[in-house]
Amino acid sequence: MLSDPTLVAVSSNRGPAYDLVLLAHVLVAITGFGTVAVAGTYARLLGRPGERTPSVMRYYRPGVNWAGRTLFGVPVLGLVLIGMSHGAWSITDQWVLIGLSLWTVAATVGEVVLWPAERRLQQLVTSGTDEPALLGSLRRRVMGCAAGMVAIFVVVMVVMVAKP
Q1: Are 56 and 46 in contact (CB under 8 A)?
Q2: DSSP state letter for 92
Q3: Closest CA relative to residue 107, chosen from 33, 54, 45
Q4: Angle of helix 73-84 versus helix 16-46 axis, rounded to 10
Q5: Domain ranges of the chain
Q6: DSSP 6-68
Q7: What confidence tens digit (pLDDT) does each residue in 8-52 have?
Q8: CA 112: distance to chain centroid?
Q9: In sequence order, which residues have a C-beta less than 8 Å from that of residue 46 and are 6 or more positions away?
């Protein structure tokens, strides 16, 4: 039996519960940022000449992009992981602060720019309004934001794995 409480604390952070929360953390991040990538892809597809495909029409039906909002679960689950680490990780660790800071930038871009532009595209597509200049501007905004957010995701993923 282990008598050193430090060893017990460090070894217990890798139990099944910790691993499940870690898996949820990763899956939520992939779902959220994957959805952002899909938003950029569909904005690009929207610019194709000719009639819009059923896939594009289905994507742009009105509604909130809830899959993208799963991004907000990433820091919540990350904080749970810190709590479950029994002191192995801290909110003041540099890699945690970098990850949270970059996540905050990405989430802000999503809420302030990407998702409002996507909602406006939904309105244009479902109304059948042909405003090429506005459509082009919104498409570029969504594609640019999506690319930036996915780039942030890649950087955060490297930081989370490397823990510099």
Answers
A1: yes
A2: T
A3: 33
A4: 160
A5: 5-162
A6: HHHHHHHTTSHHHHHHHHHHHHHHHHHHHHHHHHHHHHHHHTSSSSPPHHHHHHTSSS--HHH
A7: 444 445 789 999 999 999 999 999 999 999 999 999 999 888 888
A8: 14
A9: 52, 56, 60, 121, 125, 135, 139
